[in-house]
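Re: your question about Inositol-1-monophosphatase

S., sorry for the slow reply, the queue was backed up all week. Below is exactly what I fed in.
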Amino acid sequence: MARSAILNVMVQAAMKAGRSLARDFGEVQNLQVSLKGPGDYVSQADRKAEEIIYTELRRARPDYSFLMEETGAVEGSDGQHRWLVDPLDGTTNFLHGIPMFAVSIALERQGQIVAGVIFNPAMDELYTAERGGGAFLNDRRLRVSGRIKLVDSVIGTGVPHLGRGHHGDYLVQLRNVMGEVSGIRRMGAAALDLAAVAAGRFDGFWEDGLSPWDTGAGIIMVREAGGFVTDLEGSQDVVESKFIVAGNEAIQRALLKTLKKPI
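Result:
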């Protein structure tokens, strides 16, 4: 596949950060960990990966703005472009030695995601997408699944934990979905959940309490693989939305309807 210059920059930054994470993953028990919030940890590896990505992207496009999980917003002189960066999506998995974590980088232009990269170094899986150019896994073209009924579907989700989310609302949603589908999975990294939808591994996905750095790359991944991503109200303007519902056309619509049912 042919990549644009900007996507090559993003891939280079993601893989360089990913190699750093892979080295630290091998020494996970020796990492110094600080507590960022209830059940939400940040490690030296996380901060180091973010610095690598920032340095690489800033060198290539010095005027672009940033929104990063750890550092927050960094304003650039170019008001049209913004990087959305999660240097380690799946921090809890990482710290527990579970190889389901990823680097996620998206490029936003005038409020629209135009390119995304998701890299899981533990599994050597590189997902890339550009607007109008399709989505790929290690250079293999991706398509969302072709299933059209919830009863045949495996659905990904994010489960709220200590200090996060509305547990009561989620349990209503989970009960409604449980009765309609073939299976429910929880990976622990929203970027990888959305990548799984793009790859047809998951037929759909929903989660609340997300941030732009969690979903930016995954949104374009799903859409370029032929899928749909909206918020709970069905709006496609989801970059700043905390609630994401994704899938192919039929499953996304059915999942959205199921999630909105009363108990």
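The longest strand covers residues 81-89. The chain is about 35% helix and 25% strand.

Happy to talk it through on Thursday.
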